[in-house]
Amino acid sequence: MTGRPPPIVVAHQVTKRFNSVRALNGVSLSIDPGMVQCIIGPSGSGKSTFLRCLNQIEKIDGGAILIDGELIGYRQVGNALRALSDAEIARQRLATGMVFQRFNLFHHMTALENIIEGPVTVLRRPRREAIAEAMDLLARVGLTDKRDSYPIEMSGGQQQRVAIARALAMRPRIMLFDEPTSALDPELVGEVLAVMRDLARSGMTMIVVTHELGFAREVAQDVVFMDRGEIVEQGPPSQVLLNPQHGRTREFISAVLT
Amino acid sequence: MTGQPAARPVSAELERLVGLSIVPRRHYGRWVAAAIILLLFAWVVKAFAEGQIAWKVVGQFLTAPAILNGLVNTVIMTACAMALGIVLGVLFAIMYMSPNPVLRGSALFYIWFFRGTPLLLQLLLWFNLALVFPRIGIPGLIEFRTIDVITPFVATLLGLGMNQGAYTAEVVRSGILSVEVGQTEAAKSIGMTRLTTLRRIILPQAMRVIIPPVGNEFISMVKLTSIASVIQYSEILRNAQTIYYANARVIELLIVAAIWYLAVVTLLQIGQFFLERYFSRGRGERRARHKASPGNGAGGQP
Lengths: 258, 302
Ligand SMILES: Nc1ncnc2c1ncn2[C@@H]1O[C@H](COP(=O)(O)OP(=O)(O)O)[C@@H](O)[C@H]1O
Ligand SMILES: [Mg+2]
Fold this sequence. Notes:
A: alpha/beta, 6-stranded mixed beta sheet, 12 strands, globular, binds adenosine-5'-diphosphate
């Protein structure tokens, strides 16, 4: 056990409910730095909710999440946990970058403006510097010529790549992807997956909710299968995807493949 | 026709149809309506031309100092009241949507009261505030006699501005609601606080929905300022009245005022057009590119 770095994300017995719906029912997962973790599972199984809890778009009802060793959402004061302020939560969110299924680019900003918005407004970096870095990021996702395009003027694949660049501009330690290719026309999926592959190769810690089993098999070190708010099965892709132990996993995988 | 295959006869028939000349449909109803409207219009023009209207007087008073002074006061009041209304509107819309029940409650009360009572009544209330609070200020530190503070200008500004705020709050709120939650989530995900998100992401996009009704209200406000004549604020209509009480040129001075109102409103409409175009950027119509885009590398230009 010596020499192994501590996990960068630890979720312990996380529960989250929406009224009567138990979206997460005691989810525990620990992720090492530099690792690509894929999450698969049927619709409504709580995959998005889990990612949204990790970057505190949703508040968890029970359990605990540590990111980089820091408890998120709360601070221990004596024997009690105090909820953090809006500003403190905003600061904690800087550790994670999020890529959404529907891109969620800021509609009123060009590609470049989308990318520099966080660095300039939140991190208070000099605009000139932010622009230079944004141009590097645009080059990295292959969209240098789209710097002045508004989201509406770009294809879904291009928007998603700008969204990835926007998240990367904040220099997060962990990138969260919530079905990043599910809203794309089939011929555009490849270009987004290529960017993600490249990112994984660069050593970024990534948690990816996806139905792209090929991508999961190729890039992920670990895959979890979720169903009804629980982790049903976890293991290397060769096991979970090719030789699943649980009936529900098998059912799901054959359903996705057909 | 006979039971034969009809290919040839049909195409001959088509040839013949194509050869016919087209006579447009006659819209008799429209002609009648247009004739009636033109008649009415001619009658009104004739009435004005032959009536006791001295157009020279209109021309003469169009730039009279009292009229121009009233015009300036009208414009200033419109601008100040709208500014107050928009600031209050944004403030109360945000309070209304706040999770804090006290903030929410006060916003609800404000909107309820100022939308629920006539503007004229509110104006009179402000103007007569001294009857309720003879002195205002911080007791023992600075105090003023209310009568000195609440001038016709201040009373009008408070009346129009606070009333406008109640309406604008609802407009701003619907504008904010029109922005998808995904935008807020994306803003959070890059570490923005609630207020930064509002300022940088939500409000600029809500503007697209907010500007058209607020533009309308701006235009209404120009005309609404005339109500302030009841509490002796000397806006353009009141000054016109003062003049015609003296010289009995009633219609002429009303026309003078009307011309100025129309002029101001026209300017505002032009401004609204450009504002709407600015805030709809990234939606629908593509704006003109400022620079040829393909492959112009990392310029430092924002
Ligand atoms: N904001 C919400 N309000 C109410 N129910 C929700 C909300 N978000 C998610 N849920 C419910 O939680 C469950 C898990 O949803 P989700 O995490 O989106 O699943 P997945 O991403 O795996 O499809 C579903 O039953 C869904 O209906
Ligand atoms: Mg989902």
